[in-house]
């Protein structure tokens, strides 16, 4: 039994961990599958420098190769480091170019890497979230090379230098406004899916140096710990409001420390977000100024499982996606065994949580076989990112006019484009497939293509009989009702006719009744075989026709679209 600061872990909790940690847990339809793509010093990308035309193309190719691997793995969320350390990977009006792109701070790479990354992610059905390092603002050497386009020049009152490093001062009341301005710029300029805050906290062991002057000026003799938490929360609140005022569907998330504070199950051993660096991430979720959390749970054993459960229990039903320290698999980092990460991923899925991988290179390099295992076992099918149901539940318009063609073993689908009425923006589409005439879109294994922009889908079927369903998804992640295919490639002709708002069943010799159901299997009409089967009062959608035989058995006759 495991000893904690508060006593022993309950036996049922230990038993639960043993059960889920080693079992293969069923996949989820909604499961954020994320990866941090680090640009700092080109750790994950880029490796090549964009100082020539050839260098630019090589840099772009490096990124698309990485994104291809994400798509192949059925990931759905890319956290791309965008504000690196007081410098950007896009042409900003406020801060200069990061040196990761060209090797020289402030040098234009000759293209817009963020715009390129967004377009390439969206081609592959991936969400792109701009990962912004907030409080740390770069070393003195880089700032000297950036010249005038740096916060140390434009807002010198907002920053403090500690040793050779600059930091935004959370205690200055103008700091939230500055961070909000950066968020506004990105949100207005780019078709992003989210903004993700990193290092939204005080600096461990340097807090007194950072805010000594601002506390004297603005602290009003408040309890310093409370004042500091309020300062960080003010930054979060300002950034959240700035983003949502422009595009309410952009997801606002952050990466807090993996342990919020001590729990009844286990002690944080002094290292937690609440007490050590003045983060109140659970409060942000409950206040509604954060759409999701990616706790940096880079631990094992008792330092992982009790704290993940604590996040799950204390975030007001908003999504938590634990960040796993997969870099510890590498022999030079921690030399974890693959099973350490597998257990953590299974445990997160058992709680209904997604997973984020830190960081990209250790995933795409297949460290200890992680990529292969994820591809073959854990991420076999696509999954959808968690929708923003707390902002809207209004469904987008259902696609229509599904056409299916079969040619030389290839099945091709096409449907009409949908424009979402709520956001006045494009939608994405999900494609489902089943051998059953009614495709259940709630079964994760039926999802075969997620978040695609195209209104076409092609796959090799070679005579296999499948039925299909198409849904549209708006920018909030809300899915429409499904457009169902009316027949499979080799299905028998439908034994009824639908015309002018009425049904006519062609063979009723063995029939007792006719039932009409929606695609959730709810009965909406029941007719005797002698009734005139009027269905003109049904809402627009797809419906099943069921014949009830005299011996009580049911026969599925097909689907009609009203």
Your description of this structure?
27% of the residues lie in helices and 23% in strands. The chain is of the alpha/beta class. Helix 3 (113-123) links the parallel strand 4 (77-83) and strand 5. Helix 2 packs parallel to helix 3 (113-123) and helix 6 runs parallel beside helix 8. The longest helix has 23 residues, at 224-246.
Detail the topology: elements first, then pairings.
Layout: E1 3-4, E2 7-8, H1 11-22, E3 33-37, H2 53-72, E4 77-83, H3 113-123, E5 127-133, E6 136-139, H4 140-146, H5 151-154, E7 159-162, E8 165-168, H6 175-189, E9 194-198, H7 207-218, H8 224-246, E10 251-254, H9 273-276, H10 281-287, E11 292-293, E12 296-297, H11 305-313, E13 323-325, H12 338-350, E14 355-358, H13 360-364, H14 370-378, E15 403-407, E16 410-414, E17 428-434, E18 447-452, E19 456-460, E20 467-473, E21 483-484, E22 496-499, E23 502-505, E24 511-518, E25 523-528, E26 533-534, E27 542-549, E28 554-561
Parallel strand pairs: 3-4, 3-14, 4-5, 5-9, 9-10, 10-11, 12-13, 13-14
Antiparallel strand pairs: 1-2, 6-8, 7-8, 15-16, 16-19, 17-18, 17-20, 20-21, 22-23, 23-26, 24-25, 24-27, 27-28
> What average pLDDT do the residues reach?
92
Discrete helix count: 14
Major sheet summary line: 9 strands, parallel
Total beta-strand segments = 28
Shape: elongated
Largest sheet, spatial ordering of strands: 11-10-9-5-4-3-14-13-12
| End-to-end C-alpha gap | 61 Å
Which class best fits the helix and strand makeup?
A: alpha/beta
Level of helix content? 25-40%
Rg over C-alpha atoms, rounded to the nearest angstrom: 27 Å
Sheet-strand content, in percent, reads 15-25%
């Amino acid at each position: 039994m495991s000893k904690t600061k508060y006593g022993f872990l309950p036996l049922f909790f230990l038993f639960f961990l043993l059960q889920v940690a080693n079992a293969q847990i069923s996949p989820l339809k909604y499961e954020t599958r994320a990866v941090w793509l680090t640009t700092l010093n080109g750790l994950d990308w880029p490796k090549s420098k964009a100082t020539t035309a050839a260098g630019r193309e090589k840099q772009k190719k490096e990124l698309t190769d990485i994104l291809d691997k994400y798509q192949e793995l059925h990931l759905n969320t890319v956290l791309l480091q965008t504000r690196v350390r007081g410098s950007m990977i896009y042409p900003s009006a406020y801060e200069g170019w990061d040196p990761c792109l060209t090797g020289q701070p402030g040098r234009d790479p000759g293209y817009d890497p963020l715009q390129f990354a967004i377009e390439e992610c969206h081609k592959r059905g991936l969400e792109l979230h701009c990962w912004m390092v907030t409080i740390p603002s770069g070393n003195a050497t880089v700032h000297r090379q950036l010249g005038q386009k740096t916060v140390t020049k434009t807002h010198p009152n907002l920053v403090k230098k500690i040793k050779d490093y600059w930091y935004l001062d959370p205690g200055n009341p103008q700091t939230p406004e500055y961070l909000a301005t950066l968020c506004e710029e990105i949100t207005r300029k780019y078709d992003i899916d989210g903004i993700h805050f990193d290092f939204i906290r005080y600096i461990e062991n340097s807090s007194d140096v950072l805010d000594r002057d601002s506390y004297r000026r603005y602290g009003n003799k408040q309890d310093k710990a409370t004042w500091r938490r309020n300062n960080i929360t003010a930054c979060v609140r300002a950034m959240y409001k700035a983003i949502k005022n422009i595009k309410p569907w952009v997801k606002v998330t952050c990466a807090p420390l993996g342990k919020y504070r001590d729990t009844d199950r286990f002690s944080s051993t002094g290292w937690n977000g609440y007490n050590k660096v003045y983060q109140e991430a659970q409060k942000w979720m409950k206040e509604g100024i954060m759409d999701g959390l990616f706790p940096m749970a880079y631990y094992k054993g008792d330092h992982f499982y009790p704290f993940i459960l604590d996040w799950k229990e204390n975030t007001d039903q908003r999504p938590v996606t634990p960040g796993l320290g997969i870099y510890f698999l590498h022999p030079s980092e921690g030399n974890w065994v693959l099973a350490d990460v597998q257990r953590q991923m299974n445990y997160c899925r058992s709680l209904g949580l997604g997973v984020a991988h830190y960081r990209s290179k250790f995933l795409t390099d297949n460290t200890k076989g992680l990529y292969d295992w994820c591809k073959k076992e854990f991420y076999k099918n696509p999954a959808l990112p968690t929708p923003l149901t707390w902002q809207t539940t209004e469904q987008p318009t259902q696609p229509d006019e599904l056409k299916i063609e079969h040619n030389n073993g290839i099945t091709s689908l096409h449907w009409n484009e949908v424009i979402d009425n709520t956001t006045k923006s494009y939608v994405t589409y999900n494609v489902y497939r089943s051998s059953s005439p009614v495709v259940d879109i709630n079964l994760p294994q039926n999802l075969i293509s997620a978040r695609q922009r195209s209104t076409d889908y092609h796959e090799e079927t070679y005579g296999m009989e499948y039925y299909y369903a198409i849904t549209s998804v708006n920018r909030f992640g809300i899915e429409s009702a499904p457009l169902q295919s009316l027949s499979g490639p080799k299905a028998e002709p439908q034994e009824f006719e639908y015309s002018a708002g009425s049904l006519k069943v062609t063979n009723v010799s063995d029939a007792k009744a006719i039932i009409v159901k929606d695609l959730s299997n709810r009965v909406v009409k029941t007719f005797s075989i002698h009734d005139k089967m009027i269905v003109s009062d049904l809402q627009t959608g797809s419906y099943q026709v069921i014949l009830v035989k005299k011996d009580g058995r049911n026969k599925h006759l097909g689907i009609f679209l009203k």
